[in-house]
Amino acid sequence: MTTSDHVPQDDPAAGLGADAVADVVRAEYGRVVAGLIRRFGDIGLAEDALGEAIVIALERWPQDGVPPNPAGWLTTTAARKALDHLRREKVRDEKYAEAAMLTDTTPPEPTGPVADDRLRLVFTCCHPALAEPARVALTLRLLGGLTVAEIARAFLVPETTMAQRITRAKAKIATARIPYRIPDEADLAERLGGVLAVLYLVYNEGYLSSGPDDADRPDLAEEAIRLTRALRSVASGIGSPPEVDGLLALMLLAQARRPARIATDGSLVTLDEQDRTRWDADLVDEGHALVRGCLALNRPGPYQLQAAIQAVHTDALDASLTDWRQVVALYDQLLVVSPSPVVALNRAVAVAELDGPQVALSIVDGLGLTAYGPWHATRADLLRRLGRHEDAGRAYAAAIATTENPAERAWLARRRGSLG
Asked: Which residues belong to any copy of the DUF6596 domain (predicted)?
């Protein structure tokens, strides 16, 4: 590529650091790798080729500047590297024929009901032949560009364990010849639940990052929302299950609060402390409309109920006006359709507003989620409200030890420091 393909040397992007390059790459990773997998039909080859392209970008972009179309540059460079791999391995003529489409700038005809490489990638990662933890891990790796270490932290497992899961999942896709496509309507309903679960967890990683470098990953959160919208279009062919709308509403109502979630010092701002005038009113309105549509169908599911809880919170002009009785009632329903200690923990937070911190603490202590950071943080807050500052300090310390998110750590440290 000639220097004319790059931003001029006096451009502000020229001379940017490796971290800035990494931010660009991370934002484009899912789009590029999905396109490479579609063209080559080989996850391993696509990842290896993109990895080589990223190394070249880290060498060239700081000097030459970021190309006008970073995703296009990465795709072209990675495609060339992939072809080099195929030639070196002296693959069969058929393989060369399959890769020949790379010389054509016209994308091939889409397979399945929607032309979206990344959504097809999600359906590939969520094939029933793969174990559920592997589905989520592989999606985060390929779609979000997260490192194995970051995914391992999110799952609270050793890095080697997570690496094995991802490797086995890729091998399963290759050996079982799992197709890179969105399934037809006959199979879509069966696969939909797994895809929703993965998109939910992808959004959560974007909403509050599990790694030590970023408070959140807005690119990943926005991609999860975009894919859920695309999935909604696909699901319309099978009657548009309300859980799709429920998940979209849940994401939108959470995303609406993003402008008020991080303080100027980089610490987390909890829901009760947020400046609600900074919330995105358009997202709130869209989320509320989706929730009302779900309620009218009266087919409650986990995502719809979580969205309804968020709707109650975002309906209150001030934290003091929150209808906590309705929140607890919705959590009671959620415990019926999706019983879990995490749901019980969130319900306890609402119970504390109705029945007091001591009642809530007895619920929390019975859950024993000692490896879960929010459990320690919730205990700490309840103990602080009860005046048990020494116990609260230990609980805050335990919460800090279980998270690497910088915004969470800053907020927890500030709360711990306020104990005196």
From this structure: 191-292
